[in-house]
Write a structure and sequence with these properties.
Helices cover 39% and strands 17% of the residues. With 380 residues, the protein is an alpha+beta fold. The strands form three sheets. Strands 5-8-6-7 form a four-stranded antiparallel beta sheet, covered by helices on one side. A two-stranded antiparallel ribbon has the order 1-2. Strands 3-4 form a two-stranded parallel sheet. The two termini are 16 Å apart. The structure holds a DNA duplex (18 and 18 nucleotides).
Length: 380
DNA sequence: TCTGGGGTCCTAGGACCC
DNA sequence: TCTGGGGTCCTAGGACCC
């Protein structure tokens, strides 16, 4: 779990899972499920390092490696099976390399199948340290009685809606009339039917060929609920600086700024604002966020704050017309350089100069995380 | 002793324009 | 003498993922 006071279970050991401990539980729930539970604070540096090493190993086997999350990758092995004789021989070789190089830290489970949807299913069928190979002709029998919620992309809501239509299994989903699915679920409906049949169109998107990020954001649950405007603004400046720094690092400019607020009752909403021109300037992001805040009448204290930059484009949007803008850009560039070299708060804004005693709990790793590029959120 | 944080995609409704 | 229709942009919210 995270280091902050307000945190959740990131993942649980198989022993703890046997007691019903689940990802996302708070400490109290987890302890109730398993009184003897031992909490361990995550070490994200360790996990990202291991992730990078494993992706490196995978890339020795195939250039077509998609880093899906910190602990999952898709590999298209279509072109490299021959060298190993069979898919399972290749998988064994991958597992051997990982065992040799990271065996003291972790093992891996591998699923081999005709597409990403079924491969994901296969990799979840046997854990830990599993290997499941599904040939195309085996897929229909597997899916026939499989509950729809076990498919990647069908969550609790879709499961409930499908149940209302009398659809519980993938087999039923695959036979259900497309017209009704289309009417009920829109464009997703057509894909749902195909998924029920085990068909999936998305291919492996190798590292380096991903689309540019569409948004860059940071949010934080405050250590203590805040209703004081200056306190809220200070948090917003901190978040704006994180967003701006990450956007500038990758030469991304955004034209929309969104402010997200969560109340103590967990009601969460966001408001966004379109800027006259794309930016990645901390102060422009901050003033937009504050502008939205000032237009709000807060009903209660605030539990969580978030700042997101979106409508992103790559590269400077226009020539800097004014000397002020050029100076500002050089200032930000210099600050970013110092912070990269000497650590993330070497140089900061005067408003943040009083450092919070409980500031900067170690972040939790997200699935959008990547070993390189803008989604490599700095975890210190 | 209450419930994290990073994303993507889709939809629906309203403003505005021709 | 009664109010079309298509397109774009913008915003908010929800579902999903790890």
């Amino acid at each position: 779990m995270g280091s902050a006071k307000r945190t959740v279970v990131t993942t649980a050991s198989y022993e703890a899972r046997a007691f019903g401990v689940r990802t996302g539980m708070n400490k109290v729930e987890a302890k109730r499920a398993c009184p003897g539970l031992i909490f361990v604070t995550g070490d994200n540096r360790k996990y990202t390092d291991a992730s990078v090493r494993i992706i490196g190993i995978l890339r020795d086997f195939s250039p077509m490696v998609e880093a899906y999350s910190i602990d999952e990758a898709f590999v298209d092995i279509t072109g490299c099976i021959c060298a190993y004789g069979s898919p399972s021989a290749l998988a064994m070789a991958v597992k051997k390399r990982i065992r040799e190089e990271l065996g003291s830290l972790l093992t891996c489970s591998i699923g081999i199948a005709p597409n990403k949807l079924i491969a994901k299913l296969a990799s979840d069928m046997k854990k830990p340290d599993g290997l499941v190979v599904l040939a195309p002709e085996e897929v229909p029998a597997l899916l026939e009685d499989l509950p729809v919620n076990e498919l990647w992309g069908i969550g609790p809501r879709l499961t409930a809606h499908l149940a209302a239509l009398g659809v519980a299994t993938c087999g039923e989903l695959g036979r259900f009339p497309a017209s009704i699915l289309r009417e009920r679920f829109g464009i997703i409906g057509e894909r749902l039917k195909l998924m029920g049949q085990g068909e999936y169109e998305g291919g492996v998107v190798p590292i380096g060929q991903e689309e540019e990020a569409k948004s860059v954001g940071h949010s934080m649950t405050l250590p203590v609920d805040a209703s004081d405007k200056p306190v809220i603004r200070r948090h917003l400046l901190k978040l704006s600086e994180k967003v701006g720094a990450r956007a500038r690092e990758h030469d991304l400019y955004g034209r929309k700024v969104a402010l997200t607020i969560r109340y103590p009752d967990f009601y969460t909403f966001s408001k966004q604002k379109t800027l006259p021109a794309p930016t990645n300037d901390t102060r422009a992001i901050y003033s937009a966020a504050v502008g939205i805040l000032e237009g709000l009448r807060l009903k209660t204290a605030v539990r969580l704050l978030g700042v997101t930059l979106s409508d992103i484009s790559k590269g400077s949007p226009q020539m800097q017309l004014f000397e002020d803008d050029r100076r500002r850009e050089r200032l930000l560039g210099a600050m970013d350089g110092l912070n990269r070299t000497f650590g993330s708060s070497t140089v900061t804004w005067a408003a943040l100069f009083e450092k919070d005693p409980w500031d900067d709990p170690t972040g939790v790793i997200s699935p959008a995380w990547r070993p390189e590029g803008v989604k490599r959120v700095d975890v210190r």
